[in-house]
Structures are given as structure tokens and as C-alpha cells.
Prior knowledge:
The protein is an alpha/beta fold. The chain is built from eight helices and five strands. The protein has a five-stranded parallel sheet with strand order 2-1-3-4-5, with helices on both faces. Strand 1, helix 3 (76-84) and strand 2 form a beta-alpha-beta unit. Helix 1 runs antiparallel to helix 3 (76-84), helix 2 (38-54) packs parallel to helix 8 and helix 4 (95-104) packs parallel to helix 5 (122-132).
Amino acid sequence: MSVKIGTNGVEISRVAAAAAAVAAGAATRADRDNPINQSELAANLAQGIEVSLSRPQNIKKTKRLLWVDDTPSNNDYLVRAFRDLGVDVVLAKSTQEGENALASESFDVVITDMSRPPEGEAGLAFAKKIREMGIKIPIIIYASYWASQHKGQESNFGVSLITNDPSAVYSEVLKRMLGS
Length: 180
């Protein structure tokens, strides 16, 4: 059973299913060295669901997300969760592919990993290039070790979020896309 909010709103069952996919992905991504903070996971998922349900009028227009990662299969559960909510997710495997997509299409949010051949900090270089192109768009750096070392330093890098937590990515994307 699902409950639809608004005439063109989001179905609660779709939001809950997307949140469940993110939680499952977080559990599979966690390891002994980086255990899941259950409270933070629950809070981020709840915030994402709350944003989805409190702003159904903004879902009428298809939202677009550009995700740059040389190993896109690492993000399958999040990509599926966003697509289940009606977000058009465009995947790029290189910085050049990401730049080409941004030059020819418009997006609501960009997610980038950090390390891509040949550069160890390709995500930062990509964020800088986006700003040089004059594009004002939320940028999320979603990386494991690098993010754990730089979390909270978003303003230093001109990005919206630095994280290694999939539930934080989920929550931030929904906030940025549905809150605009």
C-alpha cells in the first residue's frame, strides 16, 4: 500500500523504499574500521524522508543529478534510490565526461568521488572546474578515507557536503533538489 501526497507528489512507499535501499547499502559498505553510526544513519534517513514529504509540490519537474565516479557500481544502491524517486541520474566515469555533461546539460546537483585516474584529488579539481565554468550548483564529495579527513571543511573547498556516509548523501540530495 502507498499513500500519495499531493496531486503530483511522491508516494510514501517510494520514499520509504528508497530510504531502505540507502540503509541496506550503508550496512554493506560499513566495515570494522568504519562502523555505521546507527543514530546518524537514522537521523539522515528521517531528514531525507521528511524533506520528501514536506515538499511534494517541487517534485513535478524532473530533477537531474550528475554523478562522477570511475567505479559507478559502488553507488548502485544510492543511484537506484534516487531513480526510484524520479530523479534522472546521469553517470560519468571520468572528470572529462563530467565536464562534457555539464557543458551540454543542466543539473540540480553534482556528486563526485575523490580519486580518479590519473589524479588522487580529481574530485577537488572537478569542483574547482565547475566553479571556473561559472556553474552555481551544489557539489557533494562522496569519498571514503579523504572525506573522513576533511568532513566539516566544505567552505574551504567550495562544496556543499564532504562525506563518506551514504545516508548523508541521500539526505543532502533530497534537501537540495526538493528544497529549491
